[in-house]
Amino acid sequence: MVFSLFKKQPLLEEEVIKWLFSAFAWSLKNFGTDTFYKESILVTPSDQHFPGRENSVDSMAALILDRVKSYAGVNHWPTRLINQHYYHSDPTAEPNIQQVLESPSELKLPLLYEPQQVGNPQAMIANYAHAIAHHLGCQAQERPPCDEEQWPHIMEVVSAYMGFGLMMANTAHPYRGGGCGRCRSPAMDRDGFLDETEVTYALAIFCVLKQIPISEVNAHLKGSLRSFFKKAMKDVVNQKEALSKLRSINQPSLLRGKAASIKN
Description:
Layout: H1 14-31, H2 34-38, H3 57-72, E1 79-83, H4 97-102, E2 109-113, H5 121-137, H6 151-170, H7 196-210, H8 214-218, H9 223-238, H10 240-248
Helix pairs in contact: 1-6, 1-7, 1-10, 3-5, 5-6, 6-7, 7-9
């Protein structure tokens, strides 16, 4: 009908929005609400949250990881950082996070990094957050609301739950800028799983629950997503039943353990 031309279209498909809310609910139930509300912060790609410089690529990669671990609440996890170009071990032989935490003096969790992403730190931060989310997710008591193929997708929602939604959204698509784009290596970017609007909607859920104003996000969100984010914030608020269910969840943070958080 002609009147359907004037009907307001949803930001995302209804099923996608339902899934994002269910993924966020799963995160709150399995990884805790006390840490989320009392300690987690909106991590920004700024000198405020990532201060300091190092003289080598490896040292910069380690510095960034230390900050990511702290904001994620897992700086007590024993880890070893490995340049992915020199990593030849069998992943199935590597210890999982449960084994590492049970034997911290003997085992360390391997985390890989792409050296060229030091030139694109938002991608490096997002990849670290996604890797930490994966290891955290493996310890969940409940099955996630997804099939095996969607595991990487829901881990991006977990990354947003931990406070890294800005970097996940800003790096959701490969670089398409002008200038010396031909000089840019694809290795500097990250391979995302959720669409940039989907992960931005997950960021909006985080911000509504944490009562973070739009202006604080838009100061760091890439320009092409700012209008969508503003609409997403309004849409999340209007999802009253789904939002109420999230706010009713009360779960201690059992898996991340006690860790000193950086709250700059």
